[in-house]
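INPUT
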Amino acid sequence: MRIRTFMTGVVMAVVMNAAAAPSVLAQEFVKVENAAREQLPAPQFVGAAYAFIWLAVLGYVAFVARNLAKTRTEIEDLKRRIERAGGAPPSGAGGRGGGAA
Amino acid sequence: MSALGRGFSAALIVAAAGFLIVPFKIVAAPIEPVMGLIQKIFYFHVPFAITMFVTTFTAAGGSVAYLFKGSERGDRLAEAASELGVVFGACVLVSGPLWGRKAWGVWWQWDARLTSSLLLFLILNGYLLARRYGGPGGKKLAAALSLFAAVDVPLVYKSVDIWRTVHPQTTVVPSLDPQMRPAFWMSFALVLLVWGVLLTLRMRLLHARARLAELELAVEDLEEVRT
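OUTPUT
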């Protein structure tokens, strides 16, 4: 019986302490008049989306163009090596890649 | 200039003209009453998303040819298409959140459409990583990943009809206002054309590099014989 009374007392003390403790969070929602509404600028969002899309596409084109230039340099290098080795440069070396752009 | 070269040049000219014309059509299209101006992202977001599906299926087709017939051309097609899948996927995954931030108030929602789209983008990235760093069996591993990407496409498309989501459903395009249709379909044609041009360009480059590698080996042999 004593233990039961003691436990009830402890629980009540904890509950009362929790109720009395100050909280940093709002405990109720109150209506605020004339509050500033979040305004997001649609033209900037649309502009950012389009800019990213075209930059991504142009970036890929630049990547392909850089690879193409590298391939052309390598083909020229290969032609010189063939000439040095005394053979005729193969006609397909400049092939389809060289004419792609 | 060959017929292929002439066709490619014509496609390039049409694509360049499209870049000038399509933005005017989009500006001229009516403003959607609920979302307002932000809905204009739709005219590029959706065509890029559909083209991402097309390029994923193309990559899977190439991978099937490579896996079951050993086709090097199929492998090059899969590589070029997957690269474009990553580029187009990035466009979808950036333009979408920009639209969502204004329309829904959040940049991202872990709902079925957005999550499965991100998954598709990651699988396509995985394809490229497996090719580059996968070692001797990397190309086959990548080809298998490409098939998984293709399986994800129907899931991405139907996800909005199957699960509850904040994303608009698949009925948006068929039920589009007649005044909005020309801008949408012109934009879609342009994006598809750009994809076709880039795919052709990349495939030719990959072909040239493969041929170059073969010739380098032949030249090394020739140099050894001469010395």
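end of record. Chain B touches chain A at residues 5, 8, 23, 36-38, 40-41, 44-45, 48, 83-84, 87, 90-91, 94-95, 98-99, 101-102, 194, 198, 200-202, 204-205, 207-209, 211-212, 215-216, 218-219, 222-223, 226 (CB under 8 Å).
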